[in-house]
């Protein structure tokens, strides 16, 4: 799965964590509101971090940048899901 448009690559452990989170939401859709609240808080953190970006190391800056590029994250998620469904 190419991630060239993002300024960093996900590690295999990070990919597995994302897959587990998706499986958890598939099995327990009632947990979605909690994940959405978490996303909202992450966006608030990202907004604060953007104002103080000179204080963070490059990898953290890249992750914070990625939080605001929803279309790229959606493309990655779709690609990951297609890859998983292709294995089944």
As a percent range, the share of helical residues equals over 70%
CA radius of gyration is 14 Å
Tell me the strand percentage band.
Answer: under 5%
Low-confidence stretches: none
**What order do the helices and strands follow?**
HHHH
Count of domains: 1
Structural category: mainly alpha
Total of helices: 4
Provide the residue-averaged pLDDT.
76
Shape: globular
Number of strands: 0
> Describe the biggest sheet?
none
The N- to C-terminal Cα distance equals 17 Å
Structure explained in plain terms:
- The chain has helices at residues 12-27, 32-51, 58-67, 70-87.
- It has 4 helices and no strands.
- The protein has one domain.
- Helix 2 (32-51) packs across helix 3 (58-67).
Write the topology of this structure.
Blueprint: H1 12-27, H2 32-51, H3 58-67, H4 70-87
Short description:
This protein has helices at residues 12-27, 32-51, 58-67, 70-87.
Which short descriptors sum up this protein?
88 residues, mainly alpha, 4 helices
């Amino acid at each position: 799965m190419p991630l060239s448009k993002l300024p960093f690559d996900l590690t295999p452990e990070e990919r597995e964590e994302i897959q587990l989170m998706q499986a958890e939401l598939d099995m327990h859709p009632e947990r979605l509101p909690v994940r959405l609240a978490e996303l909202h808080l992450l966006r608030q953190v990202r907004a604060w971090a953007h104002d103080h970006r000179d204080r963070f190391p490059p990898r953290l800056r890249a992750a914070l940048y990625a939080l605001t590029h929803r279309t790229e994250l959606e493309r990655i998620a779709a690609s990951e899901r297609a890859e998983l469904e292709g294995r089944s």
